[in-house]
Amino acid sequence: MKTRGRVFLLDDDDLIVSMLARALKGEGYDVQAETDPAGIVDKIRSFSPDIVMLDLKLPGASGMDLLKEIMDRGIATQVVMLTSDDSAESAVRAMKIGAADYLTKPFNMDEVKIVVNSIVEKGNLKQEVEYLRKISSDLVYKEIVGVSREVRKLKEKAEKLAQAGVPSVLITGENGTGKEMFARYIHHAMHGQSPGVYAPFVGVNCAAIPETLIESELFGHEKGSFTDAKAEKKGVFELASQGSILLDEIGEMKPNLQAKLLRVLEERKVRRVGGKHDIAIDATVFTTTNRNLEEAVEKGEFRIDLYYRLNVFSLHVPPLRERKEDILPLAKYFLEFFSTKYNRSAIKGFSPEAEKLLLAYGWPGNVRELRNVIERIVVLETGETVLPDHLPKEILFRKGAAGAAAASHGISLPEAGLSLDAVEKNLIFQALEKSGGNKTQAAKLLGITYDSLRYQIKKFGLE
Predict the structure, then answer these.
(1) CA 250 → CA 162, 315, 318, distances in Å?
(2) Could you give the residue ranges of the DSSP H alpha helices within 172-292?
C-alpha cells in the first residue's frame, strides 16, 4: 500500500510519541518515532522524511538547536515544532530559523492531522509543479492508440504488470516506437486510481546527462560533497518516491553506474553522493533502450547481472512498419489532437490517396515521425482534407512508398528506370485532357489542390 508521506517524530515523552505515531499511521503515513536526541540529525537524514515533528525541549538537547542544524545541513524536509509554551516568542523564533509550523501541547489530534496533511499536500504540489516545469508540455498519454494484434497483446501484458505492482520493467524497441508511452501507461494503471496520493513520473535520459553529473542526478548529493554542492539535493530516485522513474537509453549507462543501479534495484535503497546513510526508495523503475542488450553483454558493454535483473519483466514494442494497422488510427488521433491544440477544427480527415501513401511508407522514425508529420500538416496546410501534396516529399517519392503507391495504380517501374518529372508531366497532361482543361476538375483527378496544379502546370510549361 502506498503511503501518503514520511513523518519523523522526536519527543522525550513516550506517551506523546505513541499517540502521535498511532494517529498518523492511521492517516496513511510512514512514521519513525524516537525519544532520544542522540545522533538524531543523521537518523532524520537517513529516513528522508517529508516532515519532522520536533519537541522544543529535550533532555540534553535544544529543539531550537536541532532545527538550526537541520537547516544548516540543508536537509530537505519540513519541520513542525512541538511546544508546551503557548507564548508566541518561541514560535516566532522557530519560524525565523525555518520551521514550517508549530503545535502546542496538549494536542488537538484533528489539528495535528490538518497541519501534517496541509504541509505534505503543499510539498507534493510544489514537487509536481517543479517536475512539470522540467518536462515538455507535449502529449502525456494515459491510453495507447492502436488496433493491431501486437498492440493489443502489449496492452494486456502491461495491465498485468501494473496489477501485480512489479518493481521494474525493461521496455525495448527502436527509437520513436513509443517506449515511454508504455511506461506512462503502466504508471497510470498503477497510480491513476489512487485518490489523494500524488504519484510522480520522473524521467532521465542516461545518454544526455554528462557523466560527471549523472550520479548526482540519479542518487542526489549531500551538502559539500563536491565543489558546487551548496545544499543537499534529492536525486530522481527520491523524487520519484511513491511513483515511477524512467531511465531512458539505459544501454548507454557507464559500467560503474550500472553496478550502483543493480544495487538500488536489489536493495531498494540509494546512497547520495557524499552520503554515509542509505535511503529507502519506493518507486517503480522503468528502463528503456533501443540497443540489443544481449549483444551489448557479449561485447562486455553491459553487465550481465544487471541485464538479467532488468529482464525479469520486459516489453518489446515493435516498429510501426510491422504493425501497419496502427498507422491510420494514430494519424487520425494526432490529426484530432493537433487540430484542437492549434484551433484548426476545419481539418476533417485524410483523402483516400493520402491514406494509401501513409500506409505505403516505411516510417523509419516510427510513431514519433508520424506525429511530427501530422503536426506540420495541421499547422501549415489549409483545407478540410489532408491530400497527398500536403505530405512531405520523403513520403511521396521515397523508394518503398512511391513503389507501393504506383503499384496500387497499376504503374510498374521499368528495369532501365524512368524520369519522374516526365511521368508527372504526362499525368498532369492526361488530367487536363480528361477534364477538358478544367483545372479544378483536373486537380481533383490528381488528388492535389488547385494552387498545386497551377504550380505544376507552370513548372512543366503546360499553360
Answers:
(1) 21, 14, 18
(2) 179-191, 211-219, 236-239, 255-267
pLDDT of 120-160, one tens digit each? 877 776 665 555 544 433 344 457 899 999 999 999 999 99
Per CATH, the number for 416-463 is 1.10.10.60
Cα separation of 232 and 77, whole Å?
A: 11
- Bridge partners of 285? 168, 245
What does the pLDDT read at residue 421? 74
Whether pLDDT at 196 is above 60: no
Mean pLDDT of 6-19: 91
Residue 232 burial (CB count, 10 A): 21
Q: How far apart are CA 315 and CA 102, in angstroms?
A: 49
CB proximity list for 84: less than 8 A, separation 6 or greater:
56, 57, 104, 105
> Taking Cα atoms as reference points, which of 321, 338, 419 lies closest to residue 372?
338
- Whether the per-residue pLDDT at 398 is higher than 60: the answer is no
Rounded CA-CA distance 77/131 in Å is 18
Per DSSP bridges, beta strands 61-62 and 57-58 are antiparallel
Q: Residue 463 and residue 454: Cα distance in Å, rounded?
A: 9
CA distance 284 to 162: 10
CATH number of 6-124: 3.40.50.2300
User: Looking at domain 321-413, does it have CATH number 3.10.580.10?
Assistant: no
**Measured between alpha carbons, how far is residue 376 from residues 320, 331, 338, 355, 382 in Å?**
19, 12, 9, 16, 11
Superfamily covering domain 149-318: P-loop containing nucleotide triphosphate hydrolases (3.40.50.300)
Q: For residue 304, give the DSSP letter.
A: H
Q: Extract the C-alpha cell encoding 150.
A: 501486437
Per residue in 214-233, pLDDT tens? Answer: 888 888 888 777 766 667 77
CATH 3.40.50.2300 residue ranges for the chain: 6-124
- The C-alpha cell 500524488 sits at 198
Write out the DSSP string of 146-162: --SHHHHHHHHHHHHHH
